[in-house]
C-alpha cells in the first residue's frame, strides 16, 4: 500500500509499505479521509522522530475484522480515535485522561496518511465511532480536532452568555470560534495577522475579527459593551499572543492556553495583575473519550459548519503540497488527504 512518510515539513514522500496484518480484537480500516493537523507541521516536535507516518484525524471503512470483534463488520463506516486512555491509572481516575501514559502511547499502525490502518484492540474497544450515512467521511475526520476544542472550553468552564476572544484563526481557532458560538457565547471575537484567516473567521461565525497588531484592548471594548473578554483562547504558539491574552481578559476571566510554544520557552506574565484581577489560567492537551463523544454528537447533529473549513482536498500523491500549505499557514484552513 502507499503511505505518506514524513521526513520534514518540506519533505513528505509517498512510499510503499505492506498492508498491516491484524490480530484478535483488531480492525483493518481503509482510510477515506485524513486531515492534516497543525501539530503535524510542528517540525521541532516531529523531525527528531522522522521518518514516520503521521495522520490522526481519520475516517474510513472496515475491510477486515479480527477474531473476537463483535460490534463491527466489514463495510462499516467508522471514525477511529488514535489516543485512548487506560481508564484505571491515577490520572484517569482523577479526570485527566489525556495525561495517561496509555493515552500518550496508543496510535494507529502505521498512521492516518496511508491507504489502510490497523486499529489496535484497545482502540477498537474504547475509541471507535460508527459514522452515520448522512455524515461524510470528511466531516467524520473532524472528531479528533473537535474533541480537543471541546475539552478546552470544558476545562475553561465556558458558560452561555460569556464573551470569547480566540487568538489565532487557523483551523484550531476557527473550530473554537464555531464551538463557542454553538455553546451560547454572547460575542465571539477572532484575531490573526493574515487577512485570509480573518475573513474565514467572519464567515464561520465570529462577530468581529481584528488584526492582532491593532490595539486590541481598545477595539475589544468598542464591540463588547466596554468590557474585555470573559474567556481568551490562545490557539497559536506565538509568544506575543500569549502575552497579549492577559491584556485582553476581563477581571474574573479565564485565559486558555490551547496551543503549545516551542520547548524551553519562558513567557513573562503580569503576576500581580493576574492575582489582583482573579484571572484563571487553564491548559489542555488532547481530547478524552468524553470529549470525543461530545464532538461526535455535535458532528452527527450537524451543529457546526465543517465543510466550509476544508479548503483543499488532495490525493495521497499530493501530500507534500498539503504539508507545505499547512506549514505556511496562509491561504489554507483544513487540508484533507483522501488516500
Question: Brief overview, please?
Answer:
With 339 residues, the protein is α/β, with parallel strands linked by helices.
Structure in words:
By secondary structure, the protein is an alpha/beta fold. It has two domains: about 200 residues, Alpha-Beta Complex (Quinone Oxidoreductase, Chain A, domain 1), CATH 3.90.180.10; about 130 residues, Rossmann fold (3-Layer(aba) Sandwich), CATH 3.40.50. Helix content is about 30%, strand content about 25%. The strands form three sheets. Strands 3, 4, 5, 6, 7, 14 and 15 form a seven-stranded mixed β-sheet that branches. The N and C termini lie close together (about 10 Å). About 50% of the residues are buried.
Describe the largest sheet.
7 strands, mixed
Summed up, the domain count is 2
> Radius of gyration, Cα only, in angstroms?
20 Å
Q: End-to-end distance, in Å?
A: 10 Å
- Assigned CATH superfamily of the largest domain: Medium-chain alcohol dehydrogenases, catalytic domain
CATH architecture of the largest domain: Alpha-Beta Complex
The CATH class of the largest domain, by name, is: Alpha Beta
- Quaternary state of the chains: single chain
Amino acid at each position: 500500500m502507499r503511505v505518506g512518510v514524513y521526513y520534514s515539513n518540506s519533505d513528505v514522500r509517498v512510499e510503499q509499505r505492506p498492508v498491516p496484518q491484524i490480530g484478535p480484537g483488531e480492525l483493518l480500516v481503509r482510510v477515506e479521509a485524513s486531515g492534516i493537523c497543525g501539530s503535524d507541521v510542528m517540525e521541532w516536535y516531529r523531525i527528531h522522530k522522522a521518518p514516520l507516518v503521521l495522520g490522526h484525524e481519520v475516517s474510513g471503512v472496515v475491510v477486515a475484522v479480527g477474531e473476537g470483534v463483535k460490534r463491527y463488520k466489514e463495510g462499516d463506516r467508522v471514525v477511529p480515535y488514535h489516543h485512548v486512555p487506560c481508564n484505571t491509572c491515577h490520572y484517569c481516575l482523577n479526570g485527566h485522561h489525556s495525561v495517561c501514559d496509555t493515552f500518550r502511547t496508543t496510535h494507529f499502525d502505521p498512521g492516518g496518511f496511508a491507504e489502510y490502518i490497523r486499529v489496535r484492540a484497545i482502540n477498537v474497544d474504547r475509541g471507535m465511532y460508527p459514522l452515520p450515512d448522512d455524515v461524510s467521511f470528511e466531516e467524520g475526520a473532524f472528531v479528533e480536532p473537535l474533541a480537543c476544542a471541546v475539552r478546552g472550553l470544558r476545562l475553561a468552564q465556558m458558560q452561555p452568555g460569556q464573551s470569547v476572544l480566540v487568538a489565532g484563526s487557523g483551523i484550531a481557532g476557527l473550530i473554537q470560534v464555531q464551538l463557542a458560538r454553538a455553546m451560547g457565547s454572547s460575542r465571539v471575537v477572532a484575531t490573526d495577522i493574515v487577512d485570509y484567516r480573518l475573513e474565514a473567521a467572519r464567515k464561520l461565525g465570529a462577530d468581529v475579527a481584528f488584526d492582532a497588531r491593532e490595539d486590541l484592548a481598545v477595539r475589544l471594548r468598542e464591540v463588547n459593551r466596554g468590557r474585555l473578554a470573559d474567556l481568551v483562547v490562545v490557539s497559536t504558539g506565538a509568544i506575543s499572543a500569549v502575552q497579549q491574552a492577559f491584556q485582553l481578559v476581563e477581571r474574573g476571566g479565564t485565559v486558555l492556553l490551547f496551543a503549545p510554544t516551542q520547548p524551553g520557552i519562558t513567557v513573562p506574565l503580569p503576576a500581580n495583575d493576574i492575582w489582583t484581577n482573579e484571572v484563571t489560567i487553564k491548559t489542555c492537551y488532547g481530547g478524552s473519550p468524553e470529549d470525543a463523544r461530545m464532538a461526535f454528537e455535535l458532528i452527527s447533529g450537524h451543529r457546526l459548519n465543517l465543510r466550509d473549513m476544508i479548503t483543499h482536498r488532495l490525493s495521497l500523491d499530493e501530500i507534500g503540497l498539503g504539508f507545505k500549505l499547512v506549514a505556511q499557514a496562509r491561504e489554507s484552513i483544513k487540508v484533507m488527504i483522501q488516500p
